[in-house]
Amino acid sequence: MTTHITIDPTATGPAVFPARPEWLTLSVALADEVPIIADRDDLLVSVAPGAGGGAPACFYPARALIEVDGNHLGVDPATIDPANLSDRARYAPAWGALTHECGHAKHTAWEPPHDAPPAVVAAAMLLEEPRMEAAHVRRRPDDRHWLRACVKGIVAADLHLFADPATAPQLTPADAAHTAALLLGRADGGVLTRAEVAQVASVVEDVLGAEVLDKLRAVWREALCTADDDATTMLDLGRRWCEILGTDPNTPAEPGTPPDPSGTPDPDGPTADPSPLADAIASVLNEVAANVAQEKAPEDPAAVAAAERAAEDAAERTARKSARLVFAAGGPRRGGTKTAGTRPPEQDERTAARVLARALDTAGIRERVATKSTSEVPPGRLRMRGVRAAEAQRAAGAVVTAEPFTRVTRTPVIVPPLRVGIACDVSGSMGWARAHVASAAWILANAARHTRVPTQTASVIFGRHVRPLTHPGRPPAEVTEFYSNDNWEDIPVALDALDGALGLSRPGAARLVVIVSDGEYRHEPRRKGQKKLDRLRESGCAALWLTTSANDKPLSGATVHVLTDHTTTARAIGHAATAALRAAR
């Protein structure tokens, strides 16, 4: 039997009443939270120093009462806000103990009969510990963190580990079996890991032997699959547990100390020093506590959503600011990253712009959606079966529900707008891209003017600074050329500027960002640029990376296209734009 669930129907509790105001307030606040955890609305909670019946927490089924020992809280009770999930990590062991008792309140739905043998009941209640926690984790997976957080306090109380070395587990079959159920059973139930309990498993196997341990493991694994209200099976498992250990079923057992199956006391008596089993248990519990301290606690979905919204708002403000700096002001007034003047477009570029516009129009064509409907009156096609059904209903004096006319309504599908941004690297290694990207940017911007698909484009060059080549909504009359001799790549600002100008991170359109670069960046712009690109892709924006070598280093997540012929740059961008438009259907 365990120390923190009282099956005695005469036990009413509470042992300690929360007299101070802060404990009363906390008790009420916890009582407001337990209905969600335990899926019950009749539970009371009492928190006070010394409560819990000698354990971190205790559940009294007869009174639907959970007691929590305030000494395990570790923080000022007046500062606790149980409704805030992010605050619970400060007092994780105490919250875990409360969660454990909520698990008992929900899943320990069976009671042993009054005439059941005491040792059998004790064994069944021992098996109930891992069974209940496994059932709770299946129902509420996030609570695994809190159950792990309280393992040290709960198991130590059940095994009397730290109270007195004389009462700590010894190298006896009974203590080894008790330990195996509480720790190895929790590992099989998914609360602990097998690596964490390996040290205890080794000591237990040395004491019990592999054959006995395997038999006990089969028992607790069967308990893990037992229903919450199946008292018969749990008592049968408790009886099997006693038979495996050779325990007399009628032997009375103190809570937490199953009887020695040998039936004879240790002639040397309990030792003052901890046994190897107690040392192994303490080592495992400390390791679990250390692991829990490093784990990330479950977060409040509302708080996470609010933080994500705030981060997205900040990113949008940054993008709009970058767009104003680049497209309204043309970038910084001083410094490098310069354009090299303009030239009139060639006839081939004018033709390419019109070809791309037609391709976008074709990609934007949507088939009308056909909807078939019926009615009692025209218009529509008359179905004789419906006419006869209507006549039969009238003859019978029934309400006419037949609809003999059918018609098909074809509704046109709205064509989504298209937004395309181009960012070209102008570091010294990108000299090949100057003429081709300048041409492609002009072609794309002028294709947007000729197409019937609502299209916005913009293009920038990025090096030490970011400067515009084409502006959104303003098709250029001439091709803007640029230099490529910078020694820095400010890709984060380039992506922000395109996002702020075109809304690449906002849904409601087919969106594409094209990056022309070899990816040879320093650490900081690469890290920030990857973050910006990830944000765009998570919002649904497609990303195309144009390069000339398979050995280049594009940012992860983009679709990489290696240009074997530099003159096909505009064609590759046009294909990606039409593909993005088709994907938006």
Give a written overview of the molecule.
The protein has 585 residues and is of the alpha/beta class. It has four domains: 1-106, Zincin-like (2-Layer Sandwich), CATH 3.30.2010; 108-297, no CATH class; 313-363 and 416-583, 3-Layer(aba) Sandwich (Rossmann fold), CATH 3.40.50; 369-411, no CATH class. It is 45% helix and 13% strand. It contains 17 helices and 14 strands. It has helices at residues 21-38, 92-107, 118-139, 144-149, 151-159, 173-188, 198-208, 210-224, 231-245, 276-294, 301-328, 347-363, 384-395, 433-450, 491-502, 523-538, 569-583; strands at 44-48, 57-60, 65-69, 339-343, 369-375, 381-382, 405-411, 418-425, 455-462, 466-470, 479-482, 510-516, 542-547, 559-562. The strands form four sheets. Strands 10-9-8-12-13-14 form a six-stranded mixed sheet, with helices on both faces. Strands 1-3-2 form a three-stranded mixed sheet. Helix 5 (151-159) runs antiparallel to helix 10, helix 6 runs antiparallel to helix 7 (198-208) and helix 6 crosses helix 8 (210-224). The longest helix has 28 residues, at 301-328. The two termini are 63 Å apart. Residues 254-270 have low confidence and may be disordered.
